[in-house]
Specification:
The complex is a heterodimer of chains A (280) and B (340). Chain A has 280 residues and is of the alpha/beta class. Chain A has two domains: 200 residues, HUPs (Rossmann fold, 3-Layer(aba) Sandwich); 45 residues, no CATH class. In chain A, 26% of the residues lie in helices and 31% in strands. In chain A, helix 3 crosses helix 4. The longest helix of chain A has 17 residues. The relative contact order of chain A is 0.14. Chain B has 340 residues and is of the alpha/beta class. Chain B folds into two domains: 178 residues, HUPs (Rossmann fold), CATH 3.40.50; 126 residues, 3-Layer(aba) Sandwich (Rossmann fold), CATH 3.40.50.1220. Chain B contains ten helices and 17 strands. In chain B, the strands form three sheets. Chain B has a nine-stranded mixed beta sheet with strand order 9-8-7-10-6-1-4-5-11, with helices on both faces. A five-stranded parallel beta sheet of chain B has the order 14-13-15-16-17. In chain B, helix 6 runs parallel beside helix 10. The longest helix of chain B has 27 residues. The N and C termini of chain B lie far apart (55 Å). The chains are: A alpha/beta (280), B alpha/beta (340). At the A-B interface, helix 4, strand 9, strand 10, strand 11 and strand 14 of A face helix 5, strand 7, strand 8, strand 9 and strand 12 of B. Strand 11 of chain A pairs antiparallel with strand 12 of chain B.
Chain lengths: 280, 340
Amino acid sequence: MLNICILVKPIMDPASIKWDYQSQEFSYISNTFNSADTQALQWACDYKEKNGAKITIITAHDSEFTIEEKRLLKYNIDQWIVLKQPELKNNPGETAQIIAKELSGHSFDVILTGSVSEDKNSGMTPAMVAELLFIPALTNIHHIDVKEEGLWEVKRSEDRGTVQTYEVKLPILIGVTNTLGRKRYIPRYRRPPKIKKEIRILEKANEQLNVQVMKMTEPRPNIRYFDIPKDSLSAEERLLAIMGLSQDKKEQSGKKVASEVNDKTIHFISQKLQKWLQEG
Amino acid sequence: METNIICYLPLKNGVMFTEEAWGLVEQAKTIYPNTSKMTAIVVHSGIPVIELEQLPFDEVYHVHVPIEQWKVSDYHFQAFRRICAIIQHQKEIFLFSSHPLYHDVAVRASTRLGMPMITNALKVIEMENQPSSLLVKREIYQGKANEFVSFAPTKQQYLTFERSILYGRPQYGTPSIVQEIDIEKYEPSPIQFISESEIDWKELKLTEAKVVIGIGRGVQDKNEFDSIVKLAEIVNAPIGGSKVADELGLIPREKRIGASGTSIEADIYIAIGISGSSQHLEGIKAVKHVIAINNDPSAAIFQRCDIGIVGNYQQVVPRLVDALQAERQSETYVEHLHIG
């Protein structure tokens, strides 16, 4: 029976969060779990249903961060280890360190997690944990086939439309993408008799930060400059011009729009298409 | 203090420098332009030495790895460590592409040595009050905010660049050192590369495709699909469509493109019979190139497109298919001649 560990990262939900331009900070903050991590968890639960497995979740978060436990408890897990450390969010590499330290005391066949977190977008924790544990890692996996218990076949999207297939021997850390499975409503599984939950309160890291966040800013807004209609136009014509429906606009777009379908036009488009295809 | 900028050059299938590699070179040249030395690390599976001798770097170190091993980051990491044992400087900044293969090498190397790392950089500038320190701009929370981070002063620093900003033209130079590092035996990896395949256009997701075809009200009959399907086969593009196309039953609901459907980031979008409502344009705002075919010259899609044809798609698409097929056939013929 496989012993599976899932690293689940609690995050501020990027879907709800908004940058408040006035106060220069985030508003509409709500907490959730990294969706690729929950995809990994969902995959592990599906595997457990069919083949049997022991699933342990490890979450590491800042002591001040509150998480909605129910959202994880509805999965069919056996053990949950919670690591809490003050000011963890300010120290990017520390999460991998404390997870690796915790994992070094356990023996897992496979560690599954999301390749990248939706909040910080750094993608460092999976490979760092693997390196600290001296086990191999393969990230950006979107499909897993279990050939034998100790031998898996996994697929990774290389570029757009290209898929690479790898065969991996366990133990290994696999970083998955959001597309590992189809997102679906997770019914409340029949809760196992007992979920072993362990909470470890860790001391604040003393190490000096080697990467510092200097500032956070709003994304640059997309500003589009429209042509100012000529004064000589009537109100109606000006309105049509702004809407892009006037004859004037048609003439402007005429530079890139061909109104005659001839061999020259077709050749031009097919050549452009080929060129753009080769660019990628 | 001289800083050595070390670029781990990304390659296409281990044998070709692409715009991504030249983009990394361009980024490297903007970092400490006057006080740095430039070194290239090339882990390849068959690039001719003459190409390596023309790279725009002061020093080039290269390792040849068989293609099956080249696809696995474990072997890159072993090659990287061997090269790093040769190049020792007072201060080093290692630059990588954020492609998963190179990203994994960078993270492992920085972790092994306990050195700082910043990933997915969008822009790197020198800090105003500390010219020897770098300020790196990154996108966080799915583009809803930007973060500016800097390294603590350390001997080595690792930086990966977002692939979308790595785009450049070929550059040439005369390196003073071009050295091949011979690795007699690699430690075997438990990860084995099996194969690489292209996903068929029918299975390809709209969000993952390089080319997407969109159909709208102008394509009113499913029976007229033949030429569009042929075009989809040739350019390996999934077929999506506008809200109207969905409501007319021309496409399934999950293939709807726009504010009420999927937002796509394809390189090329071919809009056939689509007027270009603001909701639809919202869904294609991240597309690089748009080709529009519509018989209404006032269609808003023509304001967004790079190339547009005012005409009936039933005439345009078959001719475009013929032109592309002729092009492909001539390419195959040329390849055949070369092989022969």
